[in-house]
Amino acid sequence: MAEEHGMIEPYVAGQVKVANGERIVSYGTSSYGYDIRCADEFKVFTNLNSTIVDPKNFDEQSFVDVSGKGYCIIPPNSFALARTVEYFRIPRNVLTICLGKSTYARCGIIVNVTPFEPEWEGYVTLEFSNTTPLPAKIYANEGVAQVLFLEADADDICETSYRDRGGKYQGQVGVTLPKT
């Protein structure tokens, strides 16, 4: 489907575990899914302005932009937003579930991603929670989470897709903050 429908761009048919002679957190096609990468574009949450976190009225000044370093340091008990390297176009008969990779989970770094609904497309906004009392490092252009694809039976395709509903995150291109 990735090659036939342009579902994942860029698409890596195998699994990459070494880059520039160094071991990395793997990305690409896995046994039952696809390991996505994090782009070098982050928004790190800060409580500098002492605002209330309100999903209906989110203060964009609660973030510090970080890019071009190849990594991001997340403060203790804080979080960062990022986006995938890959652009997704989900077919109408597919739903995805995305789970963080064990390498990060074993370090107390939780990767949170909502499902990619049928006919959603865009770069995926990723949320990294640092649950530890120490700073945590996230690497750009390496694997961070695995996408699992669930295909509907031919007679059970969704009646109303994300595109049909005019979903507010359709076609997102950068690290996308909450919208109402």
TrEMBL record:
The keyword Hydrolase applies. CDD domains: trimeric_dUTPase. This is dCTP deaminase. Its EC number is 3.5.4.13. It comes from Amantichitinum ursilacus. The gene is dcd. Belongs to the dCTP deaminase family. Transmembrane segments: none annotated. HAMAP family: dCTP_deaminase.
